[in-house]
Structures are given as C-alpha cells and as structure tokens.
Write a structure and sequence with these properties.
By secondary structure, the chain is α/β, with parallel strands linked by helices. 34% of the residues lie in helices and 21% in strands. The protein has a 10-stranded mixed sheet with strand order 3-4-1-2-6-5-7-8-9-10, sandwiched between helices.
C-alpha cells in the first residue's frame, strides 16, 4: 500500500502548476528532518527527479535543482502539511512564493506523513508537530547552506488541516485537549490517550511574524486560547466539511481569532487547499482530488489562492519593513 501511495504522489507532482523560476534543494538533516526548500532562481525550470527516497518509487517536482539563490535578505515561509501528507503536498504554493521572492521550507512530519504513518493517530503526533517546525526553522536559519540569504526578522508560517492545528499551536494558541477529551466518546487509542495523559506545554516560536492557516482541525481551539495570538493571520476555511474539520467549527475559530484577521470562505471541500491533481491522480484517488461541489475548479482557485497568500506575506513581512 505504501508503494502504491507514493506512485500516486508522482502524479500529484506532475500537476498543471510549475514554477517560473523556483530553485529546489532537498535535505535530509539528521534523524527525522527530511524535506525541501524552494527559493528564487534565475534559471528556467525543468523536471527535478527526486529519486527513490527510500520508498521504492522514483518521483519528481518541477523547478531548478540546487541552482544559486537569487536575492538577499529574503523572507522565509515554513510549511506544515496535513494528516499523512508530505513535504511536497503544497508544491505549487511553495513554488509561487519562491517566484515572489520568498524562501520556502517544508518537511515530512515524522510518524505522520506519507512515507511513515506509524503515529498518525497517536497523541504523540499532535504533541511533536510544533517541535518539528521549530527544528525546521532552526535548521534553515542556522545550518542550511543558503542561510545567509534569509532575513531572520521576516518569517512566516503556512499550515493546512492538521498542519493548521500545528500552526495555531506554534503561534501561541495552546490546544485545549480537555475540550477534545470531553467530546471524545469512542474507544480509540487517541481518545484513551487524551483522557489519561498529562499534556505538556507545546512548542511555540516567537520568531514567526505572520501565518496563513487553511482549514485547521477546530476542536482544540476556543476564543480563550486563540486570544494569545498576537501576529497577523490570514485564515482560509472550506464550506464543505470533512470529518472532524467541519464548517461550523472552522467558522467558530474564524470568529474567535483576535485582532483583524483576513478571513476567506471557499465554496469547496477540504482538499481544495492541496495542490491541484493531474488527471491520472483524479482517477486514482478521488477522495483527495474530486472537488465538491462538482464543477469547482481547483486549478483556477489556486491561481487566486497562491496570489493571495503571497500578497499577504509580502504585506506583513516585506512592505514597510
């Protein structure tokens, strides 16, 4: 099953989107820190073969592998993927941001990604995700070979789905596991764990100056814990629900965000925020690729979505700074 899934990832990578001039550098830095960095580059993009990566399937993205970075004092965006996602799950958005002058870094969350889902439903995956992002940020700023081009005062965060949960936690909203436990009535391992575990404080990072949150898991968040967020937020929510990510819950979170967040309601389902699918992937994995309602154009939506995300980050991290 794992090999079949990654075969589909190949198709996802070959969507209709491509970067105008996005450099791509892969990294595998010590245990549990694997991903990619996109950045401005002057060369013309082409297919970038990523190789096996230990999952038995060769696949690729579009860009310019390991080309020199163009620019200095560039803003940095870090990306947290959703449940059992992967570092390339938002490759079109990452490439669009790189084309707009940003450095973008994304990782596979250990134990909760396509190549390793061993902890996807375990409480530990919720506790470790914010720490994963702190480690990613430390790596890019302190050890990445292109770190000199990054402005450490201009850092943003993008999170989708479970990555949206991760992002909200990282920017100050301590998740309310007690609230989730009270509504958790089944006999699942996760419910048992949150009812019987003393939850430690999760990692937060004050270096992040702006965040884009797309359709997060809403049950952990209330007006009380969201009040701790002090940075600008662009918030996207789907009007068609999926499981625990319901439109009523995300609307409640949107209303509860402090300050003046930029709110976008999208007349589509949860996976509209993931990279557009190729025709082959649409046929093979309709749950992720078949948009709701029928006729919703994910490709067209992403053109506007990516422009809006880039514009928001530019306004908050670059303009006037």
């Amino acid at each position: 099953m794992r090999k079949a899934f990654w075969s589909l990832v190949v198709l996802l990578s070959c969507s209709a989107f491509s970067a105008d001039a996005a450099g791509i550098q892969l990294f595998n830095h010590g245990p549990n820190l694997t991903g990619a960095i996109w950045y401005p580059c002057q060369d013309k993009p082409k297919d970038v073969e990523l190789g096996d990566l230990g999952v038995g399937v060769d696949y690729g993205l579009v860009g310019v592998k390991d080309c020199p970075v163009t620019g200095t004092k560039l803003p940095l965006i870090i990306i947290s993927h959703g449940y059992v996602g992967w570092f390339g799950g938002h490759h079109d958005t990452a490439a669009a941001l790189a084309d707009a002058g940003f450095v973008v870094a994304a990782i596979n969350h250990p134990g909760d990604c396509a190549s390793d889902s061993s902890k996807k439903d375990d409480l530990s995956s919720y506790l470790s995700r914010p720490t994963d992002m702190v480690r990613l940020l430390d790596f890019v700023l302190q050890e990445w070979n292109g770190r000199a081009v990054v402005d450490p005062a201009k850092i943003g965060l993008f999170g989708f789905s479970k990555g949206g949960y991760t992002a909200l936690a990282l920017i100050g909203a301590a998740p309310d596991f007690g609230r989730v436990a009270r509504g958790c009535t089944d006999a699942s391992k996760f419910c048992e764990q949150i009812r019987n575990t003393d939850i430690p404080a999760l990692a937060q990072d004050a270096r992040i100056r702006a965040a884009v949150i797309a359709d997060p898991i809403p049950g952990f968040f209330t007006q009380s814990n969201l009040a701790a967020i002090t940075i600008p937020v662009q918030f996207w929510r789907a009007e068609v629900g999926i499981g625990v990510i319901d439109p009523e819950g995300t609307a409640r979170v949107a209303r509860a965000l402090p300050g003046k967040p930029e709110i976008h309601d999208v007349p589509a389902g949860h996976f509209a925020f993931a990279a557009p699918c190729s025709p082959q992937l649409k046929a093979a994995l309709p749950r992720i690729c078949a948009d709701k309602p029928a006729g919703f154009d994910r490709l067209a939506f992403h053109r506007e979505f990516n422009r809006s995300v880039a514009r928001f980050f530019h306004e908050q991290l670059v303009a006037g700074n």
